[in-house]
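Internal ticket #5521
Category: modeling
Description: The requester needs a full-assembly model to guide mutagenesis choices. All entity lines are attached below as received. Residue total reported by intake: 271.
Assigned to: D.W.
Attached entities:
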Amino acid sequence: MAAQLGSVWLQELTWEDVAAYLEDSDIIICPVGSTEEHGPAGPLGLDCLIAIALAEDVARATGTLCTPPLWFGDSPHHLGFPGTISLRTETLMAVIQDMSRSLRKHGFRKILIINGHKGANLPGLLAATKNLREYEMPEVFFAVIDPVKIAKKIANEIKEAKEHHSGELEISECWYKYPHLVKQEKLTTSQVDFDENFSPWSHGDLFSAPHEVIDIPWTSTEQRRIVPTGSFSPSIKASPEKGKAYHDYMVDQIVRFIGWLRDYDGPVAQV
Ligand SMILES: [Zn+2]
């Protein structure tokens, strides 16, 4: 297990270490994030930093190995802000698929992607893994793990504002894990009016939708105009305590999932 190897990070081990790990486990965690603006208070690497923190805490608790993080994601809508570096959706898919081909060749059969970039990476990650399984490697189990899907309960208990890009919860989690990277004097107070900008069928909270939703993509030029600070929802109520509650809840969910997965021998794995 990774604990005996001295690191949970593949890039810090030797090939012999990885061979030893594979004698005991075929599970690996892949943290995926983005490099994109996170308002005036959050660092550009926030999504990847969060994915790294989740992956590392889960890996330590379960003795699982992690791949190096993918620092870039599907972020074209943030390109109006300096520093954002985006992959096209098809590039993200190609990277995930090539990484999976390598991992499979070595004997990994359960690949867990922890996505820190939430909804914007999900279409590419799900399409990449679905197509790999169907057409190329049905014997490999994939899971795509995302805060907007595994933290709804805790999110709605602790947040005091609607949560969207660069909002209270993700700034809190970053503050908890990387306090030196949050500019506390630049926490934000404004909330983007989604109804006005994106129709009454849009919603401004990633963790709860009070009504039916129709998705409307927007461009980086529109985003810069609509959200001049880059922060879609207020982060002023962020705190490291909220960040810890949010983070620990997700770690617990993923640790329990891996506990279940270790013994999983269901129809998916038997193909
Ligand atoms: Zn983010």
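Resolution: model delivered.
Comment from assignee: The radius of gyration is 19 Å.
Ticket closed.
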